[in-house]
TrEMBL record:
Residues 1-19 form the signal peptide. InterPro entries: Choice_anch_L, T9SS_type_B. It comes from Flavobacterium okayamense. NCBIfam families: Bac_Flav_CTERM (TIGR04131), choice_anch_L (NF038133). This is T9SS C-terminal target domain-containing protein.
């Protein structure tokens, strides 16, 4: 059982290695590599094939055949040329390929092509061939251990694809950055290096490699194409060479794509969305496969014959659609036994019909100045409405100005109040002009104040919003007013013709008629007052005549007499009333028998239930002269039948509520 478990474990561990890394084969001859792998067609006219490389004591080689072997490596199969053992090129990327061999020299032609003088460990594959057409091309990837740390800023192995007519001396190097005379090297193709140097031709850099990469190299380029103009029927010599520069450390390799060597030229560079160069929706486009010596042409789309397309030129004209995207190829017939092919990948763009280029929103801040905050949701809505059906692989971004290269980001405010223009751009397709988009920011102009209302117990009140709008009440109604019978807070969204809105709040308070609890009278003074004490849930005002009201519940400077106080609820819930009296004593009396002020007394004490109170009269020396009753006739100014003289007299009023009042009055004859 233990042995079975061990076997099963070993199988699990070993299975990924079969399909995870490339494989190499050192048993191919140089002739087989060129004719059967690199050319792989019946038209090849190849001769004088030679190969040379490291003389390892183990018999291993620095050149040979490679296969993807089910891994994720970009090329299916082809030729590998290395500055080390090709066995060390197989992944994972777990060790340093760093090989050397005795007497392994460099190459003078490579030195001249790269303007160097110190190449060593050169691996060279060279042959003669006769092209059928006026162009040749093949594809390759350059990989290197020198893609590490800051090394790309200053170190690189060198390689070249050297071409010349047989019998001539100068070589042309085909291993160049596309569209330039710059050789492809680690130092010329790399991203920005942290604490090192700026990026160089970054678009041609493939990746830095992790542990489980299919090869044992630290990094590589994308698949590149080498190409050159040639003369049909002329014999050419090509020398494919790679070498270490300076020392043997940190090996590199060239992977030549199997079957990619074409001697009839190309249909041009791929035009795809991924490369940001598709065929534009308004562009008339042609593929020209015209080649000397060709007797037949047949065009294909995704491997299927395009019936009737047998001319050297395949024409395209608008309108286009995405069903046309794919691989186009042409089979060239040279007589009855020889065929060559060209191919190209094409993506076509469709005309984009603008659906809605105006976006309207309301100014949703307190300023109401036509400058508003645009959220991510707003920007998404703008994009979604711009086109009815934008292809999913198109990238639409919004820009504040037509020449901006940095898209709008959040937070974003429109720069121009009320009406502002931004621009939509398809940034991954170079076929479309910027699209102006009008942003309209509407406002709610009118001031809508909140209100506080009261409601009388058992009744209702009308909440009336400003007229001329649309309405949505918190209770669900859509009229300009509603009737409520309960206290609380109510709100209504008021919407203008621009669909902008504001919220008006109504606070409804309960109100009721007042209950007069007490009237506190302060009389027998120079400033007689009455304070009205009430209870109830209302907003009250006070009056002594039922006409003129005051908010203060205290009345001042009241004269002696009887009063009726009225307490009005300002919210219209009713008026309460009560009576009270202001008491005082006469300041003088005139006992002359004319019927006016002939006696002195303190009247109306019975109005407040004080009729049992006692009144004592004294002369100015404090001698008690008389005690009288509030209910009697009062004092007539005599003592024992004798008239007292005209002068001031004093009194003491002892009220039955325990209060004592003292004062004086004048007797005048």
């Amino acid at each position: 059982m233990k042995n079975l478990y061990l076997l099963f474990t070993l199988l699990l561990l070993s299975t990924p290695a079969v399909s995870q890394y490339i494989s190499v084969d050192q048993n191919y001859t140089a002739q087989q590599l060129v004719e059967d792998v690199l050319f792989s067609n019946s038209c090849a006219s190849v001769s004088n094939v030679t190969v040379s490389g490291g003389n390892f004591g183990t018999g291993e080689k620095s050149w040979g055949y490679f296969n993807r072997n089910g891994s994720a490596f970009e090329l299916e199969e082809g030729i590998i040329l290395s500055t080390g053992k090709i066995n060390n090129a197989v992944g994972p990327n777990s060790s340093l390929s760093d090989d050397d061999a005795p007497n392994w020299n460099g190459d003078s032609d490579l030195n001249q092509a790269l303007s160097i003088s110190n190449s060593i460990n050169a691996t060279i594959l060279e042959f003669d061939f006769v092209p059928l057409g006026d162009k040749i091309s093949f594809e390759y990837i350059f990989s290197s251990e020198e893609y590490h740390d800051t090394a790309p800023c200053q170190y690189s192995d060198g390689f070249a694809f050297l071409l010349r007519e047989v019998g001539t001396t100068p070589y042309e190097n085909l291993a160049l950055i596309p569209g330039t005379n710059i050789p492809v090297k680690v130092t010329t193709v790399h991203p920005e290096i942290f604490n090192g140097c700026d990026g160089e031709n970054e678009q041609y850099f493939g990746s830095y490699n992790t542990f489980n990469h299919p090869t044992n190299y630290n990094g590589q380029t994308v698949t590149l194409k080498a190409e050159a103009d040639v003369t049909p029927g002329t014999t050419y010599h090509i020398k494919l060479v790679i070498a270490d520069e300076g020392n043997y450390r940190y090996d590199s390799a060239i992977f030549l794509k199997g079957g990619s060597f074409s001697s009839v030229g190309t249909l041009g560079n791929d035009r795809t969305l991924a490369l940001n160069n598709p065929v534009c929706y308004d562009e008339t486009f042609s593929l020209d496969a015209t080649t000397a010596g060709v007797t037949t042409y047949q065009w294909y789309f995704n491997g299927s014959i395009l019936n009737g397309e047998n001319s050297p030129i395949l024409n395209f004209s608008p309108p286009y659609n995405q069903l046309m995207n794919g691989n186009y190829s042409v089979l060239l017939g040279f007589g009855s036994t020889c065929t060559e092919s060209m191919k190209i990948n094409l993506d076509f763009t469709e005309e984009l019909i603008v659906n809605e280029s105006t976006y309207t929103k309301c100014d949703d801040d307190n300023a109401q100045n036509g400058i508003s905050y645009f959220t991510n949701g707003d920007l998404l809505a703008i994009k979604n409405q711009l086109f009815n059906s934008l292809p999913s692989n198109y990238t639409l971004q919004l820009f504040d100005n037509i020449n901006d290269t940095t898209p709008i980001t959040i937070p974003y405010y429109n720069n121009t109040p009320y009406t502002h223009t931004i621009y939509g751009k398809i940034t991954n397709v170079n076929c479309y002009a910027p699209i102006p988009i009008t942003l309209i920011v509407n406002i709610f102009e009118d001031e809508i104040p909140d209100e506080t209302l009261s409601i009388c117990s058992g009744s209702s009140v009308i909440l009336q919003a400003e007229t001329g709008y649309n309405y949505i009440w918190s209770s669900g109604e859509t009229t300009s007013s509603i009737e409520v019978s309960n206290a609380g807070t109510y709100s209504v969204e008021i919407i203008n013709t621009n669909e902008c809105s504001t919220i008006k709040n109504f606070t409804v308070l309960t109100s009721e008629i007042a209950t007069i609890v007490d009237i506190i009278v302060n009389d027998f003074s120079s400033n007689n007052t009455a304070e009205i004490i009430v209870s109830g849930n209302g907003d009250y005002e006070y009056s002594l005549d039922g006409i003129n009201y005051q908010d203060n519940p205290i009345f001042y400077n009241l004269e002696t007499g009887e009063y009726t106080v009225f307490v009005n609820d300002k919210n219209g819930c009713g008026i309460a009333s009560a009576n009270f009296s202001i008491l005082d004593y006469p300041n003088f009396f005139t006992p002359n028998g004319d019927g006016f002020n002939d006696t002195w007394n303190i009247k109306n004490l019975e109005k407040r239930g004080l009729q049992e109170s006692k009144i004592f009269i004294f002369d100015r020396y404090g001698k008690l002269l008389k005690q009288i009753s509030p209910e009697g006739q009062g004092w007539n100014g005599t003592i024992n039948g004798h008239q007292v003289p005209s002068e001031d007299y004093w009194f003491v009023l002892e009220l039955t509520n325990g209060k004592t009042i003292k004062g004086h009055f004048a007797l005048k004859r």
